[in-house]
Amino acid sequence: MDLFCDRLREVSDNVCFDEPMKRHTTFQVGGPADVFVTPQTTSELAAVIRLCREQGKPYFILGNGSNLLVSDKGYRGVVIHMSRAFEEITIRENRVLVGAGATLSKTAAKACEAGLSGLEFASGIPGTLGGAMVMNAGAYGGEMAQVVSAATVLTKDGEEKRLDHAELQMGYRKSCILPMEYIVTEVELLLTPGDREEIRSKIEDLAARRKEKQPLEYPSAGSTFKRPEGYFAGKLIMDAGLRGCSVGGACVSEKHCGFVVNRGGATAAEILELCRKVRGQVFQKFGVSLELEVRLLGEFDPPFER
Question: Which terminus of the chain has fewer Cβ atoms in its 10 Å neighbourhood, N or C?
Fold first, then answer.
């Protein structure tokens, strides 16, 4: 490990160790990552990936930490943080080039300023463009697949590649990014010219609806479960009598049952145990198996059976 760390410092000046992951997730839980590195350029990112693969070190690409539950034991590997170095936004007529580290809210605001419509749905999603591409993030009837025209990625060998819309294989909460072990560095959006005030009004309306219906006052990872075909996860959970159900500091939101929240001092183990309980009772009552939308990182005991 010492030799690996020495070599890692040779390719990046931004390396730290035993970094608490609760500082980097919207759930505000998670133990320490063995290594936490913040590349400043695409070439530096590629060098870090190649080194991890050469040395057999597991690694995880971190954006805003908004769809992630990290184990209380932390992560025995390298967390690679896509930071401000990958936040650049460039607008060329109705095309928007966005770095993978830029947040959806900032990108939607920039598009609004330019009088470009189509990204309003994403204005309140607390994630980055890179994370949004992994899961084809969506809300209020919109999703990334509707506005993405192409993406630039690094392969697992650290080689740069451009993928068009069809090659990205974007479906409900999925794309080719995870299965192919790609790392998104830049996204190209194709938006529609519109009236700036109408776009701003729509963003403000969606923000008001989120504030009214979602538990934004508590740490969470957004929607906890994927929408089962033909159902809504939140309604199934509510109809199973689980509104307000808790395990330690983890709680099914009383405002929106599709959210598991950290009501204060929750552990990752408590959050996952509550998810197990919710899934078990929903299946017992309705015969519907809920699938986690939140990604898990690190070792959980017992493992979560998807």
Answer: C
